[in-house]
Amino acid sequence: MQIKIRSGGHDYDGLSYLSDVPFVIVDLNNLRSITVDVQNETAWIQSGATIGEVYYNVAAKSRTLGFPAGVCPTVGVGGHFSGGGYGTLLRSYGLAADQVIDARIVNVDGKILDKESMGEDLFWVIRGGGGASFGVVLSWKVKLVPVPPTVTVFTIAKTLQQGVTELVHKWQDVAYNLPKELFIRVIFDVINANDNGDKTVQAAFNSIYLGSVENLVSLMNTRFPELGLESKDCTEMSWVQSTLYFNGFPVNGPLEILLDRTQAKRFYKAKSDYVKVPIPTVGLEGIWKRLLEEDQPVVIFSPYGGKMSEISESATPFPHREGNLYKIQYLAYWEGLEETAKQLSWIRKLYRYMAPFVSKNPRQAYLNYRDVDIGQSKNGTATYLQGKVWGGKYFKNNYDRLVHVKTKVDPENFFRNEQSIPSVANA
C-alpha cells in the first residue's frame, strides 16, 4: 500500500490525497497544538495546524512578534514549512523554513527523531525539500520574528487604460531593490471596463510596510512616485490584522476567522515561474492579451530581494534566492468539470508563452505550487535522472544532496509520491 502524508490537505495538485494505486492517508489534521514562548521568541507547532492558527496564537501572546509564512490561512504547516513557505514578510525575514530550529520526525523505522538525533542532513532536507519524501514530520520549533506594533498596508488598483503596462514595467526594477521592510506584490485579474461588457486587465499593487504611513509615503514618493501613493490610500494596523487584510477579511473583525479551517472548494490549476531580468513591455502586453481570453484568470508577481538575497542557495533545499527579481504564480479557476480541459489548455498555453521571459536551464518552479505538468513518475518509482526532470526545477543544484540523503535515510523508497525524491539504492 502506498502511504500518503497529509497535514492541511492543501496540496495544489492533490498528491497528498490522490493516487492511481491503493493507498493509506496518514492524516495529521488533529495534530495541531501550538505552544508560543514569548520570552524566547519561539513556538512549537504541530504539522496539522494551519497558518491561520499559528498567526492567531502568536498574536494572542504578543503584538510585536510575527511569523513569515503564507497569505492563505487554511494551509497546513506540515507541507508549507517543508516546502519553503513564503508570504508578505519574505523580504524582511525570508521563508517559514528559514526559521525552523528543531523538529520531530518519524523516520522509516518508526523512530521519533529530533534535530540532534536525525542529524544535519535530514534536518536540512525537511526545511524546503518536501518532508513527504523522507518521513512524517510531527512538529516544528520555529523562531518568531519581531514586527512593529503598527504596520501599514495599501492596495492601489490600476487598469490598462490607467497605464498598467508602464507601471508594471517600472515595478520590476523598483520592488526588488526597495528596503526589505516593504513588500509590494502585483495581482492581475480581468474586470469589466464599462457597462457594455468590455473587459480589461486590472493590476492591484498590494503592499505591507513594517513602519508608519508617513515613512511609507515619503519612501514611495522617492522610489516609486509613478504609483502616486498618498496617505489616504494607506491604513495602519497591527501585524496580525494585516493577515486578515491580505485575505480580504474585515481588519477590525474577529481574529477567530483565522481559526476557520474550511477551504473553498473550487476547481483550479496553478503553475509558477521565476524572473531574473525584467520582462519587456511587449512581453507584458502579450500577458494581458492572454488574460483577456479568460474569465477568471489570476496572475501574481511577488518580489524577491531583501533577506531572500542574503541567504545562500544551498543553506536549505529551497534554492530560489539571489538573482530572482520576482516569482510568478499563474492560476486558472473554473466552476464545473466540463470546463477542465479548456482551462488546463489555457494555463498551459500561457506557461508556454512565458518561456522566453523567465528562468532557463532549468526553468525553475516552486515546490509548494505543486505542478505535475513539469514531470512526474508513476507512484514515486522514478530513477535519479527521471526525478531530476522536476527535481532540478524545484531544487536546482540541491537536488543531488536531496537524493543522497534520501538514499541514506530511506533506501527502499518507502516514502514516495509522484514527485518525490528518488532513492538511488531503490533505482
TrEMBL record:
Pfam families: BBE (PF08031), FAD_binding_4 (PF01565)
Domain FAD-binding PCMH-type, first and last residues per copy: 1-147
Keyword Coiled coil: no
PROSITE patterns: FAD_PCMH
InterPro entries registered for this protein in UniProt: BBE, FAD-bd_PCMH, FAD-bd_PCMH-like_sf, FAD-bd_PCMH_sub1, FAD-bd_PCMH_sub2, Oxid_FAD_bind_N
Domain of life of the native organism: Eukaryota
CC cofactor: FAD
Annotated keywords: FAD, Flavoprotein, Glycoprotein, Signal
Keyword Nucleotide-binding part of the UniProt annotation: no
Gene3D superfamilies xrefs: 3.30.465.10, 3.40.462.20, Uridine Diphospho-n-acetylenolpyruvylglucosamine Reductase, domain 2
GO molecular function: FAD binding; oxidoreductase activity
SUPFAM superfamilies named among the record's database cross-references: FAD-binding/transporter-associated domain-like
Family the UniProt entry places it in: Belongs to the oxygen-dependent FAD-linked oxidoreductase family.
Name of the protein in its database record: FAD-binding PCMH-type domain-containing protein
Species: Papaver somniferum
